[in-house]
Amino acid sequence: MDPLSESGMRTPHNGAVVQRRSKTRSYRQSYRSCLGTASRLGVTPALTARRLNASRRAAKPQNLADKVNPEHLALLVKAEWQLSYVTPLYQFRHTQLRSYSRQLAAFIVAEKQQGLAVEVSELHNSYRVSLSVVQGLTESEDDAETVLIQIHSKPMFARQDEPQRSVWSGWLTCVHGSPEYLRSLPKDFTCLPLFGSRGPEYLSRVVKSWFQKTFDCCFGSLEINHTSLQWFAALWTDCHSQSHIQHLRMLWTIPAAPPLQITYTVDPQDAWDLWNSVRKEATAAVTEDAASIDLEEVTGFLQALKSHFYRHFRLDLSAGTLQQVSTALGSAKSSGRIKMSNSRHVIATLTLLTECALLRMPI
Amino acid sequence: MYDTSKLLLQRLVRRIPTQMLKATLDKWGRLTVEQRQAMDFTQSKWALTQKLLSVCEVHALSVIMNDNPNQGMWYTFQLLEPENDAQSVELTQFKQQFKCHLSELLRQMSVKIKKHTDEAVWIRIALGSSFSKPNHLKPTYVVHYLQTPYVFVRNLTSKLKPLLSQALTLATRHQGVKEANLSGRNLTSIRDLLMRQYQQVFPTKYHSPPEEEDQPVLNQHIEKEQGGVAAHRRHMAHQAFGDGMLPQLQSAVYMLDTKFRDPNNRTMTEREETFKCVVKFSSINLLESLRSCASSGIASAPVTPLLSSIPLKGRNYFVVTDNTPGPSSQGHQTQN
């Protein structure tokens, strides 16, 4: 990323003088670097291949209760989050969270006064922002620690002694991010590629624009694609022996006129037996590594479910799109919404999502 | 009495969405033309309610019977084993018998029966308990077409169900009633489906080209190759589901309890237990969606009996087991 910082397109916050090359040359350089030319950036081949991992370790349920602050864990688990990807943050310091909190609170108030962050039904006077570190979610050394952002406020006409309620929460995280990519980043960049938010849309916009201004990063919506949804179906079913999934529910939309929605709910024990049978068949030839799951097994599992459906209805589900997968462990929607209902499987879910975010990022 | 009626009217008006308020009041037909014109619909609902209360001294509230015919689900029941004189039951006899039987069984209850122009008998039942007056805000509606075995019910409580069944069977001179496994939001649609009052296509040996479809031919070569196949698919789709406008059903539920058969997967095929799953199809107009799936080829033609049973048998809840080949509508329903 050296060419980029030298091009002078960014002004670092410490105000140090930066070598400025001529404008046209720097533009060309940065443009090419945005396209991900490996030679210029030294970005790893794994990322430029631009595919999800074809195999991954089976999810081990982890008791996070002793590693993570239970309040934070409860917050993560109870709600549905809207996901975005974030490009690496420049000069983000985990030690300066309090200062960031104050800055963000001031920014929100300023935006409101300008009339940019207005929600007609809610009249809030003051905002209190708290950024905190959630320790214990990441395991590898390359991952930056997760940051939790909470905005508290109370309505304009509330009594003095009424406590402030949380009106918006969000988090930035990186769980088992690709080590080659993380190590290839220059020193000043912190990579927290996955952003989850819950609350009014105008506050999400304000938080994102503050981050973009302060750390020179980019946010974008993260849709969960078909392959990832299939991975969720397989990974969650795989956990059935440890945590009862209660059902495996999939939602498909078929492009008919008018559109047809099909909800396919499978009994958990039957889904588990089918999953195991697919694993056995798929790895029959190859030496089996019980801990790792291959993409072929995942697609084989979904294919078996679709063919059972076809045998009854003679309707091929591949003609439609998979929109949502849900079990008792959580639900994932293709619009980029995730709910993690069981704290023991949070890490596995976040790992998959971090990978999606890293791939979706433009640089 | 007057106060509770006032309260009731207030609550009723509050529940009706503002856009529909004018239409509902017109339908109500209790206000004279001048009174209706005097109502200013640009005011807030509260002001409107006060005006309404002052205008009509609220007495009869057996009123807004059809207030929201498309809200809430209608469930279908079928009367079984008619007696010899079932065919000759006519309105006054039915009304008298029904009210008589039901009031024997229940104390606090308000029953109103009315016949509409399309031969449907509408019954509105509001239940109370031994401590309270009948609750007019949550009435049960029952629609029955005399001389047919079908009864449509909305908002049936578990308390009322056995009593209603008994009263209905006695009043219509049948021996029993069972659930017919058909539900939907639109009463006219489920009625049309059940009584086959929609345009059907009968199987013919020689397909005639569909006259009404005038699809522009995009590519001559494709048309030459695929034209025949596409026409055949369209014909099969229309044969299975019907022509023209189809009754509006919102969903169909299949409880599948069959064995998993897959030549590629020996483990599951040899498994003793069945593969249990529930499939729910939903759409704003389910039959249209299914028909379009069949004609576009997403669903293979000929349409599987499981799907074509919806219009054929007039039901949208099925339990499918291995015992009968194809689409069984056996499998007594265990829950609805």
Word description of this protein:
The complex is a heterodimer of chains A (about 375) and B (about 325). With about 375 residues, chain A is of the alpha+beta class. Chain A is built from twelve helices and 15 strands. In chain A, strand 10 and strand 11 form a beta hairpin. In chain A, helix 6 (about 95-115) packs across helix 8 (about 200-215) and helix 10 (about 270-280) crosses helix 11 (about 295-315). Chain A starts with a helix and ends with a helix. Chain B is of the alpha+beta class. The radius of gyration of chain B is 25 Å and the shape is globular. Chain B starts with a helix and ends in a 15-residue tail after the last strand. Chains A and B meet through strand 11, helix 10 and helix 11 of A and strand 7, helix 9, strand 8 and helix 10 of B. Strand 11 of chain A pairs antiparallel with strand 8 (about 275-280) of chain B, so a sheet runs across the interface.
Shape of chain B: globular
- Major sheet description of chain B: 6 strands, antiparallel
Q: How many whole angstroms does the radius of gyration of chain A measure? A: 23 Å
Secondary-structure content class of chain A = alpha+beta
Strand order of the largest sheet of chain B: 2-3-4-5-1-6
- Report how far the terminal alpha carbons of chain A are from each other: 10 Å
Oligomer: heterodimer
Keyword list:
heterodimer, A: 363 residues, alpha+beta, 11-stranded antiparallel sheet, 15 strands, 37% helix, globular, disordered N terminus, B: 336 residues, 6-stranded antiparallel sheet, 3-stranded mixed sheet, 9 strands, disordered C terminus
In short:
Chain A: It comes from Oryzias sinensis. Chain A has 363 residues and is of the alpha+beta class.
Task: Give the arrangement of secondary structure elements.
The complex is a heterodimer of chains A (363) and B (336).
Chain A: H1 2-6, H2 23-34, H3 38-41, H4 45-48, E1 55-57, H5 70-78, E2 80-86, E3 89-90, H6 97-113, E4 124-134, E5 146-155, E6 165-173, H7 179-184, E7 189-190, E8 194-198, H8 201-215, E9 219-221, H9 226-238, E10 248-254, E11 260-266, H10 268-282, E12 292-294, H11 295-313, E13 321-327, E14 330-333, E15 337-340, H12 346-360
Antiparallel strand pairs in A: 1-12, 2-8, 2-9, 2-15, 3-7, 4-5, 5-6, 6-8, 10-11, 10-13, 13-14, 14-15
Helix pairs in contact in A: 6-8, 9-11, 9-12, 10-11
Chain B: H1 2-15, H2 18-28, H3 33-38, H4 45-55, E1 74-82, H5 91-105, E2 109-115, E3 120-127, E4 140-145, E5 150-154, H6 160-172, E6 174-184, H7 187-194, H8 220-241, E7 251-258, H9 266-269, E8 275-282, H10 286-296, H11 305-314, E9 317-321
Parallel strand pairs in B: 7-9
Antiparallel strand pairs in B: 1-5, 1-6, 2-3, 3-4, 4-5, 7-8
Helix pairs in contact in B: 1-4, 5-6, 8-10
